[in-house]
Design a protein that fits this description.
By secondary structure, the protein is of the alpha+beta class. 46% of the residues lie in helices and 23% in strands.
């Protein structure tokens, strides 16, 4: 795991030499890596992009920003990724006794889920020989978080990797990501 990214998520100088902070981050990285059980799932769908929405797999998602991001794409990846419930339990336990430790674990978990998503993207690029646009998730800019329900309907995320949605559309486990990625054919 990239220690500089963990420090960045902690909003700490990435070049710090503070031994207490560095020790805290090292411990957080170790404990999060031990607790994490990363899982991913994705599907590739045909998509249609217009000025203010994107239709993926026959389901329309209203968002001008998503449409701008995916303009020119004919296919899209829809994916989910999670670190699992073990990371949530770890952070909850730490937050009851040591808030600094819990904050460092939150930062390490945020770094790790991003690395899991980046690895999935790299695997897709290699497997299909394509370029990918930036990932775009429900709740980001004008893509309402409630669109998460539609995304979940496209990919069997709950059954396959264990991410569930609360009524508020918050995902559980908390260190989970869902997103669209436009595919650029080479």
């Amino acid at each position: 795991m990239d220690k500089k990214e963990v420090l960045r998520y902690l909003r700490t100088n990435t070049k710090t030499e503070n031994s207490h902070i560095l020790s805290l981050v090292d411990g957080a990285i170790k404990s999060v890596e031990e607790a994490a059980q990363p899982k991913t799932i994705y599907r590739i769908f045909d998509c249609t992009v217009n000025d203010s929405s994107v239709t993926v797999g026959g389901v329309e998602f209203k968002s001008k920003r998503l449409a701008d991001n995916m303009r020119g794409c004919k296919r899209a990846v829809v994916f989910g990724a999670t670190l699992g419930l073990g990371v949530d339990r770890l952070i909850k336990t730490s937050s009851a006794t040591d808030m600094a430790k819990a904050m460092a674990q939150q930062a390490a978990a945020a770094t790790l889920i991003e690395e899991v998503c980046d690895c999935l993207e790299n695997d897709i690029k290699k497997q299909y020989g394509v370029s990918l646009r930036r990932r775009y998730s429900p709740g980001y800019f004008d893509l309402d978080v409630t669109e998460q329900r539609k995304l979940f309907s496209l990919v069997d995320i709950t059954k396959r990797i264990g991410i569930t949605l609360a009524d508020s559309c918050q995902m559980m486990p908390s260190k989970s990501v869902t997103a669209f990625i436009g595919i650029e054919e080479k």
